[in-house]
């Protein structure tokens, strides 16, 4: 299975770390992190930057925000660290080794965590995993069950109240993402006003206040190479907080491309949710409803919210690319993708008007 492990590559020129400053800060804080490490970069993802640092007897993963101008509330390293530490023993997560909250040390806040040697599924399921349709469905359900388990953590009983603002999450999200979208508009963007108005007018009360991941996807789940049905880690807690669990699932389903979707959406696919055995979006809602005990019969608001939020995220990155704050070629299609997602929101509204 070693050929299936996630492989880092050479660091992009735009993303080079101030390695001397990081090494100096680590001295005396992390045993084994002495001297200059070999540094590689994980190419996946479009938000925070992720690197592998290798010393003779130690391998750590470093996370930091992207370089350049960023949305004020985005790329919160402290949030990731708080949630990773809070989830230890509750949800499989990598252990945080060190956290530097001072952005002046190395031109940005950063933290280091243990390196998990595991499989991350991206666009397609490798044939060498040997997952037939039945096994694929079992894995799909296992991943969804983990999300339901996360949402089932008793926040008050577990003493996790400090991790978020609690009630009113749904309204804050609609107001916040609408504000961010307007702030990230470029001349080629869809104005999105009709979608934002609909979300504003149809915003429901929170169904519950739970721990939510904010970006729960297959490519943030690490599988055991010896048993791909076993989840050994959940990554990327940048957007985690306390909030409405159905909003969290709506976020996840914005990435959930199924086999009968249109060509543009299939081209955007970044996880193998169209593989034989994977649940459709409708089946995901049904399965999650059974596992969580929550009513998932009226889903249009959450689906539109998830698509709109993803459009905002892409538009924010496109704004940086458009203004030359990043030259990463992976971002060159984010403008058209954001515009497509705004249009898809309207399509879902038309299809789900009776739901």
Describe the overall structure.
By secondary structure, the protein is α+β, with helices and mostly antiparallel strands. It is built from 10 helices and 9 strands. 36% of the residues lie in helices and 13% in strands. The chain folds into 2 domains: 2-114, Phosphorylase Kinase, domain 1 (2-Layer Sandwich); 127-351, Aminoglycoside 3'-phosphotransferase, Chain: A, domain 2, CATH 3.90.1200.10. It has helices at 19-26, 77-87, 133-151, 169-183, 193-201, 245-253, 263-267, 281-292, 300-322, 334-351; strands at residues 38-41, 49-55, 58-64, 96-100, 110-114, 210-212, 221-224, 227-234, 241-243. The protein has a 5-stranded antiparallel sheet with strand order 1-2-3-5-4, covered by helices on one side. The longest helix is centred in the last third of the chain and has 23 residues, at 300-322. The termini are far apart. A hairpin with a 7-residue loop joins strand 1 (38-41) and strand 2 (49-55).
Write the layout of secondary structure elements.
Elements: H1 19-26, E1 38-41, E2 49-55, E3 58-64, H2 77-87, E4 96-100, E5 110-114, H3 133-151, H4 169-183, H5 193-201, E6 210-212, E7 221-224, E8 227-234, E9 241-243, H6 245-253, H7 263-267, H8 281-292, H9 300-322, H10 334-351
Antiparallel strand pairs: 1-2, 2-3, 3-5, 4-5, 6-9, 7-8
Helix pairs in contact: 3-8, 4-9, 6-9, 9-10
């Amino acid at each position: 299975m070693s050929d299936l492990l996630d492989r880092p590559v050479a660091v992009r020129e735009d993303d080079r770390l101030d390695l001397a400053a990081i090494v100096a800060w680590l001295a005396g804080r992390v045993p084994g992190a002495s001297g200059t490490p070999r540094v590689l970069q994980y190419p996946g993802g479009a938000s925070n930057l992720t690197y592998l640092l290798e010393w003779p007897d130690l391998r750590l993963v470093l996370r930091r925000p992207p370089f350049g101008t960023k949305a004020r509330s985005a790329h919160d390293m402290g949030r990731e660290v708080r949630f990773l530490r809070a989830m230890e023993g509750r949800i499989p997560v990598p252990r945080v080794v060190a956290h530097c909250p001072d952005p002046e040390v190395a031109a940005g806040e950063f933290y280091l965590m243990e390196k998990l040697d595991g499989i991350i599924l991206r666009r397609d399921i490798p044939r060498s995993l040997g997952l037939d349709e039945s096994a694929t469905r079992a894995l799909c359900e296992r991943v969804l069950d983990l999300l339901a388990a996360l949402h089932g953590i008793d926040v008050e009983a577990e003493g996790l109240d400090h991790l978020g603002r609690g009630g009113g999450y749904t309204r804050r999200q609609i107001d916040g993402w609408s504000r961010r979208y307007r702030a990230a508009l470029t001349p080629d963007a869809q104005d999105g006003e009709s979608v934002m108005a609909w979300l504003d007018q149809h915003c429901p009360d929170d169904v519950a206040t739970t721990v939510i991941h904010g970006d729960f996807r297959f490519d943030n789940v690490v599988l055991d190479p010896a048993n791909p049905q076993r989840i050994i880690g959940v990554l990327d807690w940048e957007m985690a907080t306390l909030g409405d669990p159905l909003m969290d699932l709506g976020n996840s389903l914005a990435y959930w491309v199924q086999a009968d979707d249109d060509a543009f959406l299939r081209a955007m696919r970044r996880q193998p949710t169209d593989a034989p055995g994977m649940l459709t979006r409708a089946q995901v809602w049904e399965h999650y409803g059974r596992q969580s005990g929550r009513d998932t019969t009226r889903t249009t608001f959450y689906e539109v919210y998830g698509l709109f939020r993803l459009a905002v995220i892409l538009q924010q990155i496109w704004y940086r690319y458009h203004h030359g704050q990043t030259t990463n070629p992976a971002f060159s299609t984010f403008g058209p993708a954001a515009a497509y997602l705004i249009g898809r929101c309207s399509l879902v509204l038309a299809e789900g008007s009776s739901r």
